[in-house]
Specification:
alpha/beta, 366 residues, 11 helices, 7-stranded parallel sheet
Length: 366
């Protein structure tokens, strides 16, 4: 049976949705595509993904089977496939570096992290695990702002010879130097900052693109987001938001008919609302002018469970990486990065990125 060996960094809500999804779709009928963009990619189905290693820094998760760890607090996402069968994979202690914000260490006495580690940790033990488990794809689910930790694990992927999917807004795939290094090692790379199936970013992008195509001048816009998961709690530390705001803002600016000045566009997390848990609420407002310079405005409210909203994207990204490995193709996967991520090395409209990704899957890309 064909499988894809995946290692996960960060056993939070997104890892929970991914693990549940692997088993949920393994048991679904062949024609049931609900929630999936592709039932099969390169001969691989969602159920062919196998978790072979996992890393975290929360003492409630370290040392537990991965299937149990993803339901431990502070995880709070929807449980749509329980119980998840034991994986036999014990969550290992990861390297902390900047992988969590100081204000979360004892937040309301809930978030109990293991003690700080060496500020310059050796990669050897992580690389050994990746090699020993025959990891093919390393998946980054670290919190926003984990710049040093993300680079550490990207180095581990290069050393171990694994593909790397960077789901957070630290610029790896969109940094030419990192792209060059993955190309030299002939290892697939997808990134940066995962774009949800039907999330704030893709809706905002589609509407912005629509304004331009319909001759509507976009004068100003904002996107405000609230949520109650640890992602939003982490982002209360505004110093960790620089790359996140850049990623989300550029995702919209890149499809605008004309770039908006900084004072006329505001996109980013707004606040942490504990009782929302993993539900994300997004508010978008767009102001512009139609025929005859007549003003108009649009307001939209989106409410969606945040982590399952990225699960279908990541399941496809994993399979695209594996397909690239099978084809002997390394370096940045430009089409999947443009379609699956907010801050790819090269931005395209979502329609263009969709067509390019379908061509990539078929093996007919230019």
């Amino acid at each position: 049976m064909k499988t894809i060996n995946v290692a996960i960094i960060g056993m939070g809500n997104c890892a929970s949705s991914l693990l549940q999804g692997i088993h949920y779709y393994r048991d679904r009928g062949e024609k049931d595509l609900t929630g999936l963009m592709h039932r099969e990619i390169g001969g691989y189905k969602p159920g062919d993904i196998r978790i072979v290693a996992a890393f975290d820094i929360d003492r409630r998760k370290v040392g537990r089977d991965a299937a149990a760890a993803v339901f431990e607090k502070p995880n709070c996402t929807a449980e749509f496939c329980t119980p998840v069968p034991e994986t036999g994979i014990v969550v290992r202690m990861g390297k902390i570096l900047d992988g969590f914000s100081d204000h979360m260490r004892d937040y309301d006495g809930q978030y109990t992290f293991l003690p700080a580690d060496d500020p310059e940790p050796d990669r050897g033990d992580v690389v050994h695990v990746l090699r020993e488990t025959k990891t093919e794809v390393l998946l980054n689910y670290l919190p926003v702002g984990s710049e040093k930790a993300t680079r550490f694990y990207a180095e581990c992927a290069l050393d171990a010879g694994t593909a790397f999917i960077n789901n957070i807004p630290v610029f790896i795939a969109s940094d030419p130097e990192w792209g060059r290094r993955f190309t030299e090692k002939n290892l697939p790379l997808i990134g940066d900052d995962v774009k949800s199936q039907i999330g704030a970013t893709i809706i905002h992008r589609m509407l912005t693109d629509l304004f331009g195509k319909r001759g509507v001048t976009l004068d100003r816009t904002y996107q405000l987001n609230t949520g109650g998961n640890t992602d939003f709690l982490n982002m209360l530390n505004r110093s960790r938001l620089v790359s996140k705001k850049e990623s989300k803002t550029e995702a919209v600016q890149s499809v605008a008919a004309r770039r908006l000045s900084d004072e006329n566009i505001h996109i980013g997390p707004s606040d942490y609302v504990a009782w929302q848990k993993d539900n994300k609420v997004c508010f978008i407002r767009m102001e512009g002018k139609i025929f005859g310079d007549v003003p108009m405005n649009l307001e939209l409210r989106l409410s969606v469970e945040d982590s399952p909203n990225s699960g279908g994207i990541v399941i496809d990204a994993i399979r695209c990486c594996k397909m690239a490995l099978d084809r002997g193709k390394g370096g940045v996967l430009y089409a999947p990065s443009a379609y699956f991520m907010k801050h790819p090395p090269q931005q395209y409209t979502d329609d263009e990125a969709y067509r390019m990704t379908e061509a990539f899957i078929r093996g007919t890309e230019e």
